[in-house]
Amino acid sequence: MIEETETIEEFLARRSADVEEAVRKAAEAEILPRFRRLAAHEVDHKSGPHDLVTDADRLAELRLTGDLRALLPGSVVVGEEAVHANPAVYEALRGDAPVWIVDPVDGTRQFVHGDDGFCTLVALAHHGTVVASWLYAAARGRFATAVRGRGAFLDGERLFAGPPEPGRDLVVATSHPDYTTDEQKRALRALWTDGLAPHACGSAGLEYLAIARGELDAVAFSWEAAWDHAAGLLLVEEAGGTHLTLTGEPFRVTGGNALPFTAARDAATARRVADVLRTAS
């Protein structure tokens, strides 16, 4: 429990491991038991045929909401499923209270199809700044964490993105065509050019982790839902990477970003991808 005089940084120093444990327990109680065992009645559609939600998403988010608020009294939760039920919940990102940003199953499409490329994402933000993040790829048994100013880690090992190898095409994961409008497709199509090697992304969180590990050069995304980006962007930053919107500013979890935006393993790569996107927009 946070004390009245305790800062968010002091809370994280004391309780970050407890947050990790809460994420693990939610995944192990509500997500993994349903992996490759989902019944038809446990899968629904939200905004369209590609926008899936499962009982695992809903129940894991409910559990995390209770556990995270208990760890940090006075905090609020902005979760993907809560915002779907009540869009006004999203406004908490612009308030004064600490905000837990939760995506219970990032990569629901992969989860539904029995692919292990999904993860649980939790970030803690305060006054619009993401200060800590937790990423659990439960089916792969991998856990990544980051605290602003203290580095990014995967299973306890420090992450360094590093620059791409000179002379080769930059590999860029982009918004999946199934989730983009015609206008967004036109903007992203500019990435199919000399020196770039784009491909459709899977779980956004795992793509960000791949950048932080130096396995992927950049992403280019056309949507700004905070639960998809907050945790991963901090991992990228703390591993030495960066992110830019079309105006040259960093991505803001509070919204109002000029899209598409990019995150990359180093500043030069981010500028190159952002320049291509800007020219096409």
Tell me what the structure shows:
There is one protein chain. With 281 residues, this protein is α+β, with helices and mostly antiparallel strands. Helix content is 34%, strand content 24%. The chain is built from eight helices and 14 strands. The protein has helices spanning 8-31, 55-71, 80-85, 108-112, 182-189, 204-212, 226-238, 267-280, and strands at residues 43-45, 52-54, 76-79, 99-106, 119-126, 129-137, 142-147, 151-154, 157-158, 170-174, 196-200, 218-221, 242-244, 261-264. The strands form three sheets. A seven-stranded mixed sheet has the order 3-4-5-6-7-8-9, sandwiched between helices. Strands 11-10-12-14-13 form a five-stranded mixed sheet, sandwiched between helices. Strand 3, helix 3 (80-85) and strand 4 (99-106) form a beta-alpha-beta unit. Helix 1 (8-31) runs antiparallel to helix 2 (55-71) and helix 6 (204-212) packs parallel to helix 7. The protein is globular. It starts with 7 loop residues before the first helix and ends with a helix. The relative contact order is 0.13. The model has no long low-confidence stretch (mean pLDDT 93).
